[in-house]
Amino acid sequence: MDDDSATLSQVKERFGHPVEKWSDINHLRKSVGNSMYNTLQKKHKTSAVIKYFQKCFSYAISQKKKQPRKNTRRETLTSIVPHAFGHHEKCEHWCKEGNENYSFKSLPGGKPLSGDDLHDDLYIVFETMSNNSLKLATCGSTKDVESLNRMFSSKAPWRICYSTSESLNNRVAATVAQKNIGYHYISELH
């Protein structure tokens, strides 16, 4: 499920039992970026720093994809901020700090960040994400679902009511065939 709260409330209402919301990697990355823009934009005014942390967040989640235990993910997420400030005690094998030519390529000046205010603001964002690390366990993506929805909307646009039409079944079948076997389903029909 994506981060759509309306969908979550509808599912809870219709099925009447507890439902837990999990987020996919793309929505999480966007959520991290939005949280950071809202928190940092006024004080620190740098999108390069935000993009750097989005990248680190994505790497951390992807690397721990096969280790869904809460603590491993949590530890990795909480090590990102200290790493960016040059404190590598919590870093794992992904950190290249031991290299002679090591620099922070994606950070301004290639150097670690500094400033207590910035550190504290970033810590809050990543602490919040790490506290919800179990919801990151599957690291799934909703790209396939969103792709299928786009296909459905090309065959049966939302602005036109096909729900009472006899052609709706054919439109849905055509969409499923296109998704499963590609556009050559048309030649197989004729």
Would you give an account of this structure?
It is a single chain. The chain has helices at 5-15, 25-44, 47-63, 70-84, 116-131, 143-155, 168-181, 185-189. The chain is mainly alpha-helical and 190 residues long. It folds into two domains: 5-136; 143-189, no CATH class. Helix 2 (25-44) packs antiparallel against helix 3 (47-63) and helix 4 runs antiparallel to helix 5 (116-131). The longest helix has 20 residues, at 25-44. The chain is elongated and about 65 Å long. The model has no long low-confidence stretch (mean pLDDT 77).
Q: How many helices does DSSP assign?
A: 8
Mean pLDDT: 77
In whole angstroms, the N-to-C terminal distance is 37 Å
Shape: elongated
Number of domains: 2
- Poorly predicted runs are none
Total beta strands: 0
Supply Rg.
22 Å
Q: Per DSSP, what share of the residues sits in E-state strands of 2 or more residues?
A: under 5%
Q: How do the SSEs run, as a string of H and E?
A: HHHHHHHH
Helix content: 55-70%
* Sheet having the most strands: none
Structural class: mainly alpha
Domain Mutator-like transposase: 2-95
Protein name: Mutator-like transposase domain-containing protein
Organism: Mytilus coruscus (Sea mussel)
Pfam families: Mutator
In short, what is this structure?
With 190 residues, this protein is mainly alpha-helical. It is 58% helix and 0% strand.
Features:
elongated, Mutator_transp_dom, mainly alpha, about 190 residues, Mutator-like transposase domain-containing protein, single chain
